[in-house]
Design brief:
Elements: H1 13-42, H2 50-61, H3 74-93, E1 119-120, E2 125-126, H4 134-146
Antiparallel strand pairs: 1-2
């Protein structure tokens, strides 16, 4: 049996910025993979597998020009490259039209987050790569040690 949870996220401004960065990196990886596939096809080459593209993209991430990609989770870009390869394969199978490059204006801003790395609590959802306030966590631990009973309302 599959369990589904519907969650409404209410991010603060820092988290919104991080989410848009993740979505932008996903769009960049998708467009890059699609351009590489198209370039290979025009030169008469073979289809490039997603594993080869991911290895090449990892090398690209570590270059100085694309150092901003190191702040993004690798799962986000990995899934975008897989999606681009799947769309390209489906075109040649005749299942869909030729895949289009994603743009900020006409594409939905979205990215993939590995479900194993999402943590749920009663009131919060923690995504990979989104830093939480470590100072607040230390305060909670210290309060828990000094108080005899720890309640949900954070009172001793």
């Amino acid at each position: 049996m599959v369990k589904a949870i519907k969650v409404m996220l209410i991010p603060n401004n820092v988290q919104k910025t991080k989410m848009f960065q993740y979505a932008g990196a996903s769009r960049f990886a998708y467009n890059w993979a699609l351009a590489r596939e198209k370039e290979s096809y025009e030169k008469g080459g073979r289809f490039i597998s997603d594993s080869e593209l991911r290895k090449e993209f990892t090398k690209l991430r570590h270059s100085d020009e694309y150092a901003w990609l190191l702040n993004i989770s690798n799962n986000v870009t990995k899934q975008a490259i897989k999606d681009a390869c799947t769309a390209y394969k489906n075109f040649f199978k005749g299942l869909q039209k030729f895949p289009r490059f994603k743009s900020r204006k006409r594409s939905m801003t979205k990215f993939y987050q590995d479900n194993v790395k999402i943590q749920f609590s009663n009131t919060h959802v923690k995504l990979e790569g989104f830093s939480s306030s470590r100072k607040a966590n230390k305060q909670k631990k210290e309060l828990g040690k000094t108080c005899r009973t720890w309640t949900y309302s954070n009172r001793c």
